[in-house]
Amino acid sequence: MKKTILASALLLGAPAFGQSAETLYQKLCSHCHGVKFQGGNAQSLVDGVWQFGDKQGHIARNIKNGITHLGMPAYDKALTDAEINQLARFLLDAEDQAAPEEAPLPASLQTLDYDIDVQIFAEGLEIPWSLAFIDAKNAYVTERPGRLRTIQNGTLLPAPVENIPTVVAEGQGGLLAVAVDPDHENNGWVYLAYSHGLEKKAGEARAPAMTRVVRGRVEDNRWVDPEVVFEAPPETYRTTRAHFGTRIVFDPSGHLYFSIGDRGSMDHAQDLSRPNGKVHRIHRDGSIPADNPFANNPDAVPSIFSYGNRNPQGIAAHPKTGAIWAAEHGPMGGDELNLIAAGKNYGWPVISYGRNYNGAIITEITRKEGLEQPIWYWKPSTAVCGIDFYSGDLFPKWNNKLLVGALKYEDVRVLDIEKDRVMHEEVVLKNAGRVRDVRCGPDGAIYVVLNDPGTILRLVPKKD
Ligand code: HEC
After folding, report:
1. pLDDT tens, 358-368?
2. What domains are there in the chain, each with its CATH number?
3. Beta strands 312-317 and 435-440, pairing class
């Protein structure tokens, strides 16, 4: 594939010379490290921890060469040495000036349809990633470093669930999705998707890892009856720590869907013999549905449902049609909302509306015969994350509308969707923090999972 590297001047639409480090930072880096350097997709740059060296020279080297296995791009082609040095200096200054306290959470919100009360459902979590309800008062929350937390009768238990699988908590990896079986009341199954590591091989810097899905039951806050329901072939594991996906969702007939991001190897998204860069569909016991689109293709991973997906971190089933919708992190300027259909190719990296985070052009084309267009795309990228359809009694005007959370833009949007068209988009929560997940709860309230500080908000209409 043809790759062109743009000079930063072209990329930024203005002469690079004279652009302040702040402007460069906001355009190139804030997507991952946060508008206020606070982190999110990547680590905070103002917490006083420089894992890879704290001298200006180290920081400049890390910007120039990247830390590519963790998802930090190299900027040697996109920026001059002078710009890189300015940025390194700028980051050290920003750290000195970092304000210690966070802005207070808003107590209420005004939207076109509702005035909303903002309550706190749970707090004190570390990088909460995903929220799954058993009922309105009981739920599970994953913390990316590798803890499954229980909310019991509306209270977060201090101790995490014991005995869950060991996760690779590095880069974007860790304990990611949690979901409760549609028939949980009778069978007790809880599903987890996480970054699973193999033994480190001699000569390799890191252990190979891949997204894996397991289920188990929770008894006395302990994980029991563990079963693996999806595991990729070991030879497909990757040593990078980026783009694991993932979310878990069920369609009305009970199939389980989950995503795996491209794991930093974008061409794999087009390769059916690899699990990465795909949305998968399995039975809940891990067996392969006979009508899966590639079930009879001996060269394909049989759980693949769609391909050409970059890094979906939001999946939801439409409450009326049961159709599967997925939101994926694109490259810079290419976050997508897709309607996922069996066997379809969503185009990554052949077509895209975005370009690489270091300014490199990935592809010149946005459309191609045989490749699906997104239903909607966000340019600039909001860093779209968890999504859920609203269906409940508290916000009746929002029934069947899609709630969409975003990390970088720190917002929750409500998208009005008619069949396969987005007709309207409204930001209903802004700047409360980076949003990892958003859920319509069994009580009809809207739950928003904020990354840092790890907090779950509960939104309900104001009583007049
Ligand atoms: C696509 C996401 C992404 C973008 C864009 C990005 N980074 Fe990073 N960066 C990372 C990741 C991932 C790491 C590795 C640390 C971690 O696990 O979060 C990292 C690490 C770093 C580190 C090392 C921190 C340490 O602890 O030593 C520096 C410095 C840094 N980035 C600066 C920048 C600058 C400056 C830019 C913009 C020119 C930038 N990054 C853009 C993802 C990104």
Report:
1. 878 899 999 99
2. 4-97 (1.10.760.10), 108-461 (2.120.10.30)
3. unpaired
